[in-house]
Specification:
mainly alpha
Length: about 70
């Protein structure tokens, strides 16, 4: 932010709509529910699978957004 945007984060006009339309945010929300259920049942492998899935999707999102190209 400091380097490419003169120290100011861009203003998001409709933050709630942005979150509602984000498949990554929806995945995280769904995984949170699954995480709680799986932890109660001590299904650690299912929890770890969800964490890995979220990390993979986050990597894809970051690659698509390519914030390093902003100037």
């Amino acid at each position: 932010i400091n380097k490419n945007l003169e120290g100011m984060a861009p203003k998001v006009e409709n933050y709630h709509q942005l979150l509602a339309n984000s498949s990554l945010i929806q995945l995280a929300h769904n995984l949170h529910s699954d995480f709680k259920k799986n932890m109660e049942k001590q299904e650690i492998n299912a929890v770890m699978d969800g964490i890995v899935k979220l990390a993979e999707e986050a990597n894809i999102f970051i690659d698509q957004q390519a914030p390093w190209t902003l100037r």
